[in-house]
Amino acid sequence: MTDPRTWLVTGASSGFGEAIARTALSRGDTVVGVARSAERLSALASGDSPGRFVPLVLDVLEAARFDVAERTVRDVVAEVGRLDVLVNNAGRTQIGALEETTEDEFRALFELHVVAPAALTRAALPVFREQGGGTVVQMSSVGGQVTMPGFGVYCATKAALELLTETLADEVPGVRFVVVEPGAFRTGLFGGGAPVLSRELPACRDTVGPTRRYVTTGGGTQPGDPARAAEAIWQVVTGDRAPLRLVLGPDAVEGIGARLDRLRAELDQWEELSRSTDLPDAATPAG
Q: Per its UniProt entry, which superkingdom is the organism in (predicted)?
């Protein structure tokens, strides 16, 4: 039997974070759940896992600073003894064309979706190396590969986190990295007041308007079940092997599959021109 694990889950008060925390707790693990207030964590703190749920009040944007991230991980290990799984889950939806997005909105989303997870991952790696292993779960999105008008900045943050993590998988042997790419799941991401809606410009109404309507009216209609997603994540975290990218939901599978087909077709179509740019005397790479 595997010894109980210790999980650090950001954004643990709702959605995927809460579902992952509940799944881990139900298996006898310890969970350090992060949210911006203790009240947000009260449902988990009052559950039937006394002593195994540790609330941590922290605005994840603060952890975008490397020193804060390092102190946070250090304090977690001092409090619970070890860290086995880091789940970078905290996030939000932002809707707006690039022209509609303010500088503050743009920078804040990159801080939340890229810099903070990178800082926490960076802080956890020495712990995992010393322990001889660990797992980093990056909660991305189908938007890390598939774009939609109005989601450009959001998708850019997820794509950046995915490529950073793909590199880490080569840089840090012995640590398991899992990028989770969910499709439409019934979380609170589209709930009232949750999405950041950039100021609408008339010039973008026809392209971004349908996305705005989808986000502002589609909450509660998504087909995906967060509890089943959490179970799938549990399986790859605790199993003998895991994919680098875990795609969740039929819509995500179909959307990403179609994108890969388009990329292959475009590469093939332009291959002759692409290959024509070496110096005439350049050696052909072995292969």
A: Bacteria
Instruction: Give catalytic status of residue 14 as yes or no.
Output: no
* Catalytic status, residue 140: yes
Angle value at C-alpha 158, between 153 and 159, nearest 5 degrees: 95
Tens of pLDDT, residues 44-72:
877 766 679 999 999 999 999 999 999 99
Strands (E), 24-133: 30-35, 53-57, 85-88, 94-95
Kind of pairing between the strands at 6-10 and 30-35: parallel
Dist. CA 249–CA 280, nearest whole Å? 48
pLDDT tens profile 92-150: 999 999 999 999 999 999 999 999 999 999 999 999 999 999 999 999 999 999 999 99
Distance of CA 45 to the CA centre of its chain: 24
User: What is the rounded average pLDDT of the residues 247-275?
Assistant: 97
Task: Kindly name the residue from 14, 140, 141, 198 that is annotated as catalytic.
Answer: 140
Burial of 130 (0-12, 13-18, 19+ CB in 10 A): exposed
CA separation for the pair 138, 121 (Å, rounded) = 9
- CA distances 75 to 32, 79, 112, 164, Å, are 11, 6, 21, 25
Q: What are phi and psi of 175, to 5 degrees?
A: -110, 135
214 among known catalytic residues? no
Domains of the chain: 6-251 (3.40.50.720)
- The backbone torsions φ and ψ at residue 130, rounded to the nearest 5 degrees and listed phi first, read -65, -35
Q: Whole-angstrom Cα distance, residue 254 to residue 266?
A: 18
175-182 sheet: strands from edge to edge: 53-57, 30-35, 6-10, 85-88, 134-139, 175-182, 245-248
Catalytic residue among 14, 49, 141, 158: 158
